[in-house]
Design goal:
alpha/beta; Rossmann fold; 3 domains; six-stranded parallel beta sheet
Length: about 425
């Protein structure tokens, strides 16, 4: 385990994003869903701008537009009912994902009661996501837990060939799709919750929709109760799998902290082989494993002596750090929020912000972080690899693929090439 540093209690140049932003992404992974942020109008506007610039696609979100006066006089229930009425005048969402902010959580609005009053008019999943605690990963995870508790119907049946994949928020649309495709190679019927693989994957739609353009359907979510296997990827969503297992005891829960790097991928495919009773994986998977082995050899010369600092969400930072350590790199990590996964780091890790990054960066060769690390990399003339949220510099972020054997090859080669260019 790496050295865990206790950092200052004040964020000077913040690295993390808020829980409501994570909840927004989670509900965008459900087909014909309307994310509804219960809070001030500026909170929703900021979230919409960040994700629109990040994905280079329009982002669907609505707000109850609470302010300090209406919060006290009218109460939260009225704002929610008015927002639902306004939404349903124009569109017919299959689901409204209602989540809170710091303002409404501080006031203590009864969103469960408000949803109960509206259940005859609109199907709603509610979740408490105050932005004064947690971050992007926890907001996503809490939303998934809310969906599991409030939407999935109980079942006495168990389909051993049915798999529910619960990805963490850092996995791109194509990464979710690649995991699904790998599972399908093992003859599984696969569902992802949430499923961004056909929602925020950058596809060209017929027109800009008022609701989420893709993802898992509400009907499919309801019928997940007979799932034989639930797979969670990322420590932030491990409790989601445990919750599903507790509610549906006939299912098996398989957890993986990361699917990047040789060891992590080997563990993943060994588990699938055990579930299926197969002796070896499909030929395409075996071939990509050999390619990753060769990539480890090819990149070892540059990465084996490289000093890299990673500043990102905990699950993503851990995944990249583990893969880079496999090839011999010296890694230090600054993570955006406290997480259980920080106990698993085999390098120095601390919870901090970009001020802490700047203190360490002069002695490093490369910075891996979001768009806001660009200024620091240019100032200190260091190689930069953009990862995490937001990324305003690149197009096709939903198409980025850094997991499983294939994506691990891409990741290591990209890091190697960036270091050589610098």
């Amino acid at each position: 385990m790496g050295e865990l540093k206790v950092m200052k209690p004040l964020h000077v140049n913040p690295l993390k994003l808020s829980q409501p932003m994570g909840a927004t992404l989670a509900f965008l992974g459900i087909k014909n869903c309307m994310p509804l942020m219960h809070g001030a109008q500026g909170c929703a506007s900021f979230t919409k701008v960040v994700f629109t610039r990040h994905f280079n696609d329009p982002i669907t979100i609505q707000t109850t537009a609470v302010n300090d006066i209406t919060a006290v006089i009218d109460g939260g229930e009225k704002g929610i009912s008015e927002a639902i009425a306004n939404i349903t005048q124009k569109v017919t969402p299959e689901l409204v994902g209602l989540f809170t902010t710091g303002l409404t959580e501080t006031k203590g609005d009864d969103i469960k009661g408000a949803c109960a009053l509206l259940k005859e008019k609109q199907k709603i999943v509610y979740v408490h996501t105050p932005d004064f605690e947690g971050g992007l990963e926890s907001g996503w995870a809490l939303s998934v837990q809310g969906i599991i508790e409030q939407l999935i119907e109980p079942s006495v049946e168990c389909n051993k060939d049915k798999v529910l994949l619960i990805p963490n928020v850092n996995l791109s649309a194509i990464e979710v799709e690649k995991i699904k495709e790998s599972l399908e190679l093992f003859d599984f019927e696969v569902y992802a919750l949430p499923d961004l693989s056909d929602s925020l994957d950058g596809h060209l739609g017929v027109k800009q929709g008022a609701l989420s353009s893709g993802g898992i359907s509400v009907e499919a979510i309801k019928k997940l109760g007979d799932t034989g296997h639930v797979i969670t990827v990322g420590r932030s969503v491990k409790k989601c799998g445990e919750l599903f297992k507790a509610k549906h005891t006939q299912s098996q829960h398989h957890h993986f902290d990361t699917l990047t790097g040789l060891v992590a991928c080997d563990d993943f495919y060994k588990t699938l082989l055990t579930c299926k009773g197969w002796s070896k994986p499909p030929a395409s998977i075996q071939r990509w494993r050999k390619r990753l082995q060769d990539t480890l050899l090819d990149t070892h010369f540059a990465l084996g002596k490289a000093k890299v600092i990673i500043a990102d969400e905990p699950d993503n930072a851990y995944a990249m750090a583990k893969a880079l350590r496999e090839v011999g790199a010296h890694v230090e990590a600054i993570i955006a929020q406290r997480s259980e996964v920080q106990e698993l780091f085999t390098c120095n890790v601390s919870v901090g912000d970009f001020e802490e990054v700047e203190k360490i960066l002069p002695k490093m060769d490369m910075l891996i972080s979001n768009f806001h690390g660009e200024r620091l990399a240019h100032t200190y003339h260091k190689a930069l690899l953009l990862r995490g949220f937001p990324n305003y510099e690149s197009v096709g972020v939903g198409l980025r693929h850094n997991i499983l054997y294939e994506g691990s090859c891409t990741f290591l080669c990209e890091v190697n090439n960036r270091l050589h260019k610098n």
